[in-house]
């Protein structure tokens, strides 16, 4: 019993020492990052104001290493995010905000169903925005080696937005990865696409006016086309060349006109012939992730609109879920 207690005490002391060591490393990193920020035209006053209380958040590293889109099979992932309950909440949200949503749809030519789908999947219609201190989250991920360059740039971008009074730093609580607001914009997305739609002097992505206009502006600028499809679920023939199967969201390859793929699609009647000359690709999203997944099932033929959603979130399953929920709203509104 004494030996067990001694081992436990030594383990706890080791954990405390490790925690102290990494916090010291983080504070040293923060001083080095300050020099980078000042050289990038961030004022010392702004840096000290927003960065002095940032902390290393070990939970952020844990979340970064385990993300559901990398472990759930496609059917589970989509069903969780496109449930009847989510559809019902979305319909109620639309009925309460229809004037604004319809106005944004008309101005930006982005379907209201798509906007509702994205808001529903990202934040459950604004009911779950995340409670992480975004500045600490981004600092932690910048300090971490895995994707340091990306998150360093995002943190610098956020500091510039604060410096230029476009974002109120006191509101910056959101996801573990640094995303913010009803549609979970990263700082670079805020910089490039966010709009002060109600003209009150700053961008409030936790308010319907700025959030909806910003999301629609983003989708418009990156190429969403209301007249084109997103995807169709397909049954593939065994003779489909494996080179045509996309299993990663990093880059969709082997794109051809839809008509070129029809000879490998068994349920052709599900896909209107008017789309035959659209660029398309085939994805099999489970194969690279789920152990012992079938090679050809599930499979989808995807179009340019699908890749637009990939720009929003580079996950094969996320894009499928967004377009699935969009189509469900289409039948209800």
Q: How would you describe what is shown here?
A:
α7 (134-143) packs antiparallel against α8. The strands form two sheets. Strands 3, 4, 5, 6 and 7 form a five-stranded mixed sheet that branches. Strands 1-2 form a two-stranded antiparallel ribbon. With 333 residues, it is an alpha+beta fold. It is globular, with a radius of gyration of 23 Å. The longest helix is centred in the first third of the chain and has 38 residues, at 2-39. It is 52% helix and 6% strand.
Quick structural gist:
It contains 13 helices and 7 strands. By secondary structure, it is of the alpha+beta class.
Give unreliable regions as ranges: 10-18
Order of helices and strands: HHHHHHEHHEHHEEEHEEHH
The count of strands amounts to: 7
Helix content: 40-55%
Biggest sheet features: 5 strands, mixed
Overall SS class: alpha+beta
Instruction: Figure out the total of helices.
Output: 13
Kindly report the average pLDDT value: 90
The rounded distance between the terminal residues' Cα atoms is: 66 Å
Strand % is 5-15%
Q: Judging from the principal axes of the Cα atoms, what is the shape?
A: globular
Annotation keywords:
alpha+beta; two-stranded antiparallel ribbon; 52% helix; 7 strands; 6% strand; 333 residues; single chain
């Amino acid at each position: 019993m004494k030996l067990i207690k001694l081992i436990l005490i030594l383990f706890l002391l080791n954990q405390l020492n490790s925690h102290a060591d990494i916090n010291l490393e983080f504070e040293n990193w923060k001083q080095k990052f300050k020099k980078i920020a000042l050289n990038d035209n961030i004022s010392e006053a702004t840096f000290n104001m927003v960065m002095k209380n940032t902390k290393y958040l070990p939970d952020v590293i844990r979340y970064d290493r385990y993300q559901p889109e990398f472990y759930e099979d496609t059917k589970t992932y989509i069903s969780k995010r496109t449930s009847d309950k989510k559809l019902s909440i979305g319909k109620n949200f639309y009925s309460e905000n229809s004037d604004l949503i319809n106005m944004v749809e008309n101005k930006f030519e982005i379907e209201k169903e798509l906007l509702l789908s994205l808001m529903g999947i990202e934040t459950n219609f604004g009911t779950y925005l995340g409670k992480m201190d975004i500045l600490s989250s981004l600092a932690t991920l910048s300090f971490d080696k895995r994707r340091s360059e990306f998150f360093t740039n995002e943190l610098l971008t956020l500091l510039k937005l604060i410096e230029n009074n476009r974002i109120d730093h006191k509101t910056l609580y959101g996801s573990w990865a640094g995303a913010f607001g009803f549609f979970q914009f990263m700082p670079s997305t805020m910089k490039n696409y966010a709009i002060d739609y109600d003209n009150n002097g700053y961008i409030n992505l936790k308010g319907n006016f700025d959030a909806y206009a910003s999301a629609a502006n983003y989708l418009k600028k990156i190429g969403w086309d209301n007249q084109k499809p997103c995807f169709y679920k397909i049954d593939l023939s065994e003779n489909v060349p494996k080179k045509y199967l996309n299993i990663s969201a990093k880059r969709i390859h082997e794109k051809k006109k839809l008509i070129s793929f029809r000879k490998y699609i068994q349920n052709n009647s599900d896909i209107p012939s008017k789309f035959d000359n659209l660029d398309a690709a085939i994805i099999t999203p489970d194969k690279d992730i789920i152990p012992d997944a079938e090679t050809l099932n599930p499979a989808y033929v995807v179009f340019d609109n699908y890749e637009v959603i990939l720009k929003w979130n580079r996950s094969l399953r996320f894009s499928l879920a967004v377009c699935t929920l969009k189509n469900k709203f289409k039948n209800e509104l």
